[in-house]
Design goal:
The structure holds three protein chains of three kinds.
Chain A lengths: L1 H22 L14 H10 L4 H16 L38 H10 L3 H7 L10 H25 L2 E4 H7 L1 H7 L10 H9 L4 E5 L25 E6 L4 E7 L10 E2 L2 E6 L4 E8 L13 E10 L5 E8 L4 E4 L2 E4 L5 E10 L4 E10 L5 E11 L3 E10 L7 E11 L4 E10 L5 E10 L2 H9 L4 H12 L1 H4 L4 H14 L6
Parallel strand pairs in A: 2-3, 3-6, 4-7, 5-8, 6-8, 7-9, 8-10, 8-11, 9-12, 10-13, 11-13, 12-14, 13-15, 14-16, 15-17, 16-18
Antiparallel strand pairs in A: 1-2
Chain B lengths: L3 H12 L7 H14 L19 H5 L9 H9 L8 E5 L2 E2 L11 E3 L16 H9 L4 E5 L4 E11 L4 E2 L2 E6 L4 E10 L4 E10 L4 E8 L6 E10 L4 E8 L4 E10 L5 E10 L4 E10 L5 E10 L4 E10 L7 E10 L5 E10 L5 E9 L3 H9 L4 H17 L5 H19 L1
Parallel strand pairs in B: 1-5, 4-7, 5-8, 6-9, 7-9, 8-10, 9-11, 10-12, 11-13, 12-14, 13-15, 14-16, 15-17, 16-18, 17-19, 18-20
Antiparallel strand pairs in B: 1-2, 3-4
Chain C lengths: L1 E10 L2 E11 L4 E5 L6 H9 L4 E10 L2 E2 L5 H7 L1 E4 L11 H15 L7 H14 L17 H15 L3 E5 L7 H14 L5 E6 L3 H5 L4 E6 L2 E6 L1 H10 L2 H7 L1
Classes of the chains: A alpha/beta, B alpha/beta, C alpha/beta.
Chain lengths: ~500, ~425, ~250
């Protein structure tokens, strides 16, 4: 426990510095009016000081978006979204948050406490304006303290040749690289939300790992409480050149207060020969209250292209938040002997709806993919695994193994499994298994007979159920993810 | 003469008022069909249930309305080597008493049967709407409480290049049993679009075998709805061998506690055949179980589709659902699309499905050949072994033997 | 002291226990014997709080506290340990982690400090060794892929670590060879002392050769029909239950 708290403290300070020095845009207190049109896109592009080609690209995406229809095939249900009633450009500190922790929902604070998050960090996560937090002194110290740490990080990365910066900075500083890759994995008109994102994205990261370089650190560490900076339309692009390795982690175990209801992010990964990208997500956006009021709509397009021979892309996600999740991190396995992996835990409670899964598109000879998806439904929630495995004619000797397990807690929720398997190569082999069951009474009783409370017993059994996925997470995060599962399912039994 | 949905609707308008049964239901079905059109053909919006099968070739085909000389049908019938049991034979969709035989009191024609439309959903299934709108004949079997109706064959021969929309029903009273063997064959480019409604009262048992051995140029669509009462057993097996484009759709609804459904199938496809086996098992009562094994063997440029949904309603606690679907690709040009699906709203359930897709095991093949078995024969042995698990589900040995012979003939056609 | 009076219980409206009176003083080991269906396992479940069983009459106190009013985990914290006849498998749950979680939950309930991973492992290893159990048992998932004998030994290991005041052994001897049987008996004997009591539910007298009880009770049709000293078990082994069943009928 102590070790975790310590890590959090360190991380907190580091991320704040990252936020302060590395990621904040220079424009303060800047609002665009509500609504979306070409002028708004021109404004965004101008504010970001983008080159002309970037603006053209955005406008093209916007034109495509106008002709598209919001998808309706997912098993999610929500009132229509008025896209003209949103702000598409605003500086981060746009709305006055709570003045102090006293104004924050006590339920949220109780959850932070259970997750072992330090007090100061709780305030930031809850959206309290840092300037008004009582112990400002500590915050300032932390920032000062961490400048050097951040600089050290940046220096280490630079020395290795790694580029890691906000995407808007990359558009200005590394235009050729961005132009070469952006939209090549997720084309601008790929789907409704991707097109929208392409038109209006403002935040996100750019990562470039040069040939043969193993990124000297987990790029996760920067992003631990990057929450306030995580935009509504985030765009991330990660390029791993031949023989390079990188591990990237986004998200946070703490639920984040957020004024934006709609999130439509796009993440593109490119892996060349022998490159490896490990992308881990812990998503715990505000899920709405116990009655299903409020909460984030998280409509995300994540896709990786294994372009090189023996390249490898691995997605690990722990999804516990958001009112609605619509997300299918996918791999396009073009390279010979390339490898795609998807490890997922999706938890829904109360009135949450999740429709999530993956697509594995096998094109290259000998490409292999593994899908392990664990869905846990509680309360009155709906949890759907939707996945596609496609073996194209060239995918000689390709392999896929899929295991989908659903666990139901309570009799008011739904658990659904919708796999699509398509094969056009006789030498390709696909194996798919799915099970649905409930949390067994005899297992619960066994644990309680040994002294565990009902909640601890549920937590232990659910963690056991998710073990194959959780072990894929970076070490210190796995511990917190375990706690998060327990917190997310609180009140679901009994 | 119009083709596609318009052609069918035109025909309906011309027949209006002259068809038996509830005319309001027919009109509603016609409205539904007008709205939906033929999936993949004239329909406006993509239907998820028809994701992998397009009826565009049906929409583009011209079906004849004139009748054919009877001897062609008789030649086809003679070639079927039917079982020595009662048979109801339909030629081009019309009952033919002269070639039928042995039918007892439990048999009636469509025009007399009261179960028309009690289970089907024309508003959800365009081809059921089409059938409901145009159905003119069919068989109705009724077995009284506690009686065994034995084995009955329901034969469809399509001899002309026409379309037919037979409407069948089976009603088994409490504790009754029946084995229904449905065989379809023919010649030419025709459309057979059958709908069957099956009522199983508590404790009833229906064994339902379908042998689809249509002409290589034919379109075959068959939709079955079964309502399975408490403790009743619906045991269904479908063997798909023929047809240019075929779809067998089974909706099994377990509506009484402790009911059982077995929906097994095997599809053997070659050439440029397209075959689709789609099933929905609806668990609405508690303590029911469903079992399903579906195997597809694909040669040539064929395309196979399997869609199988297990849906468990909130009240269907203690449900036990299992499904396995496997495909064997024998050719680099074949394609299999498989969509097993679980939709679960009850918590105290055990549901699982498995799916595999692959080729013949090279090591097994080598093993057989190293023992002196020629390549073609070794492949045949392995394919037969692959199919065995599905075929073994047919308990009646005579019928299973008949199906195995049909499989052997299919294999010989592939080898030729 | 375990004090059961007039205890009646049913499952799904079917009465299983029909008025049990049984007192197990501290420091004593009592055996409960009886034919299949007599209600032996039900007694264990009811005492440990399994929810499927409905107590319809009677009381059960342990150390003066009302056992029947407690949640299963509160009973565990109070010192009641049930060695399951069919130990439950917990996929994905590591044995050592499970035991440590349980031990710390009980320690917390007693206001005792929790053991950290290092302290716990030291304890667990020592106990495993004492019970001649392979150490890798701790690393495996709880009961998953264990043989019948391994599962039973795992129950004894848990008991040794959790140190209950009352152990209820539900046919822990079934399916064990003689060596495993000795290990089980040794495990219980090691805990014997003035503050430990045990209720040994068994079919056979065999276990009682190694785990000599103070008293033996015979359960039939949900009632205790006869009680006596260790000799009663030996008599039953010879004569069987037939005579008693006839008597009861």
């Amino acid at each position: 426990m102590a070790a975790v708290t310590e890590t959090l403290d360190t991380v907190q300070s580091v991320t704040q510095s990252g936020y302060k020095w590395g990621f904040e845009t220079k424009i303060e207190m800047d609002f665009a009016p509500k609504g979306l049109n070409e002028d708004i896109i021109r404004l965004i592009s101008a504010r970001k000081e983008e080159p002309a080609w970037m603006l053209d690209w955005r406008l093209k995406a916007y034109a495509a978006w106008l002709k598209m229809e919001e998808p309706d095939w997912a098993r999610v249900d929500h009132p229509p979204i008025d896209y003209q009633d949103l702000h598409y450009y605003a500086a981060p500190k746009k709305k006055p948050g709570p003045k102090s922790l006293d104004e924050v929902d006590p339920e949220l604070l109780k959850m932070y406490e259970k997750l072992g998050i330090p007090l100061k960090e709780r305030a930031i996560l809850a959206g309290v304006d840092p300037d008004t937090v009582e112990n400002t002194q500590i915050a300032v110290d932390a920032v000062f303290d961490s400048v050097s740490v951040a600089t050290t990080f940046q220096a280490t990365l630079r020395k290795a040749g790694v580029i890691f910066c906000p995407i808007s900075e990359a558009v200005r500083e590394h235009p050729d690289l961005v132009r070469q890759y952006i939209g090549t994995v997720v084309p601008v008109a790929d789907n409704y939300f991707a097109a929208l994102n392409s038109a209006v994205f403002t935040d996100g990261s750019f990562v470039f790992i040069p040939k043969g370089v193993r990124c000297p650190m987990e790029l996760s560490t920067y992003f631990r409480i990057n929450a306030r900076n995580t935009g509504q339309f985030e765009r991330t692009l990660i390029i791993a050149e031949a023989g390079s390795h990188v591990s990237y982690l986004e998200g946070c175990t703490a639920p984040q207060r957020d004024e934006n209801q709609l999130h439509a992010a796009v993440v593109e990964l490119v892996a060349m020969d022998d490159a490896r990208i490990k992308y881990s997500t812990v998503q715990n956006w505000y899920p709405g209250d116990a009655n299903g009021k409020g909460g984030i709509y998280n409509f995300v397009t994540k896709r990786g292209a294994c372009r090189g021979a023996r390249s490898q892309i691995s997605w690990t996600q722990v999804e516990t938040g958001s009112a609605i999740t619509w997300k299918y991190p996918s791999c396009v396995l073009l390279g010979e002997d390339s490898v795609g992996e998807f490890y997922s835990v999706a938890v829904t409670n109360n009135h949450q709806q999740a429709d999530t899964g993956t697509k594995m598109i096998h094109i290259g000879k000998g490409s292999r993919s593994t899908i392990i998806a664990k869905g846990i439904s509680a309360g009155q929630s709906s949890n759907t695994y939707r996945g596609l495995v496609r073996m194209l004619p060239g995918a000689t000797n390709a392999r896929n193994f899929t295991q989908c397990d659903s666990l139901l807690i309570g009799d008011r929720c739904g658990a659904h499994t919708v796999p699509y398997i398509e094969s056009r190569n006789p030498t390709a082999k696909v194996e798919h298994e799915a099970t649905t069951s409930k949390l067994a009474d005899d297992q619960l009783f066994y644990c309680r007979q040994r002294g565990l409370s009902e909640e601890d017993a549920v937590s232990l059994l659910v963690n056991g159920f998710c073990k194959d996925v959780l072990k894929q997470l970076p070490m210190e995060f796995a511990v917190e993810a375990q706690k998060l599962l327990a917190v997310s399912l609180e009140g679901s039994v009994g | 003469m119009n083709t596609g949905a318009e052609g069918f609707l035109e025909r309906y308008e011309g027949l209006a008022g002259r068809l038996p049964g509830d005319s309001a239901m027919r009109a509603a079905a016609a409205d539904a069909f007008r709205l939906a059109g033929l999936p993949g053909g004239t329909q406006k919006r993509r239907i998820e249930a028809w994701k992998y099968t397009s009826l565009r070739p049906v929409a583009e085909a011209v079906f004849r309305r004139d009748s054919y000389p009877r001897h062609e049908a008789e030649t086809i019938l003679a070639g079927l080597s039917l079982l020595d049991s009662p048979r109801a034979v339909f030629v081009d969709g019309v009952f033919r008493a002269d070639v039928s035989g042995g039918l007892a009191g439990g048999f009636a024609r469509f025009a007399d049967q009261p179960d028309f439309g009690t289970l089907s959903w024309p508003d959800r299934e365009p081809m059921v709407a089409l059938n409901t709108m145009l159905a003119a004949d069919g068989a109705a079997f009724h077995v009284h409480a506690g009686h065994d109706g034995g084995v009955v064959q329901l034969v469809s021969i399509m001899a002309g290049e026409s379309d037919a929309h037979p409407r069948h029903s089976v009603r088994l009273d409490a504790g009754a049993s029946l084995t229904l063997v449905e065989i379809s064959a023919g010649q030419g480019a025709y459309l057979l679009n059958t709908v069957a409604e099956l009522h199983l009262a508590p404790g009833a048992r229906l064994t339902h075998i379908r042998l689809q051995d249509e002409a290589a140029t034919a379109f075959h669509v068959s939709t079955t709805y079964a309502d399975i009462g408490a403790g009743a057993i619906y045991d269904s097996f479908t063997l798909t061998l023929g047809g240019r484009l075929s779809r067998t759709e089974v909706h099994a609804h377990l509506t009484g506690a402790g009911a059982t459904a077995h929906l097994n199938a095997a599809q053997l496809l070659g050439g440029s055949q397209h075959a689709d086996f789609t099933s929905v098992v609806g668990h609405t009562a508690p303590g029911c179980s469903s079992r399903q094994t579906v195997k597809t063997v694909l040669a040539g440029r064929s395309r196979g589709v399997f869609q199988g949904k297990i849906a468990v309603a909130r009240d269907a606690q203690k449900t036990d659902g299992y499904q396995m679907n496997q495909a064997l690709l024998l050719s680099p040009d074949a394609e299999i699309d498989s969509k097993p699906e679980l939709e679960i709203f009850a918590d105290d359930v055990k549901c699982s499905h498995g799916a595999t897709v692959g080729a013949l095991d090279a090591e097994q093949l080598f093993y057989l050949r190293s023992r002196g078995i020629p390549d073609a024969e070794a492949r045949a042995i392995l394919v037969r072994a692959f199919l065995a698990e599905a075929l073994d589900a047919v308990a009646n040995e005579t019928i299973r033997g008949r199906l195995e012979t049909a499989v052997a003939h299919w294999w010989m056609r592939q080898a030729a | 002291m375990l004090d059961i009076r007039g205890l009646a219980a049913s499952i799904a409206d079917k009465p299983i226990l029909n008025g049990i009176d049984l007192v197990v003083p501290d420091g004593e080991v009592h055996a409960v014997m009886g034919p299949n269906g007599a209600g032996k396992s039900t007694l264990g479940y009811v005492l440990s709080g399994r929810e499927d069983y409905l107590v319809t009459a009677g009381t059960a106190t342990f150390g003066g506290a009302d056992l029947l009013a407690m949640e299963p985990e509160q009973r565990a914290a109070a010192g009641v340990f049930l060695a399951f006849q069919a130990p439950v498998e917990l996929p994905g749950v590591n044995n050592a982690n499970f035991l440590r979680t349980a031990l710390n939950a009980i320690r917390r309930a007693h206001g005792e400090p929790e053991l950290d991973a290092v302290q716990f492992l030291k304890l667990a290893r020592a106990e495993s060794k004492r019970l001649s159990m392979p150490e890798d048992m701790l690393k495996r998932n709880v009961n998953v892929g264990f043989s019948g004998g391994e599962k039973k030994r795992n129950e004894v290991l848990q008991m040794a670590i959790l140190r209950p005041k009352l152990a209820i052994l539900d046919e822990t001897d079934s399916g064990l060879d003689i060596d495993a049987l000795k290990i089980v008996a040794d495990g219980v004997n090691a805990l014997r002392g003035p503050a430990f009591s045990a209720l040994v539910i068994t079919h056979h007298q065999r276990l009682l050769d190694y785990l000599v009880p103070n008293r033996v009770h015979v359960l039939l049709n949900g009632r205790i029909v006869r009680s006596g000293g260790p000799d009663l078990a030996r008599d039953l082994e010879k004569s069987g239950y037939a005579e008693l069943i006839a008597e009861a009928a």
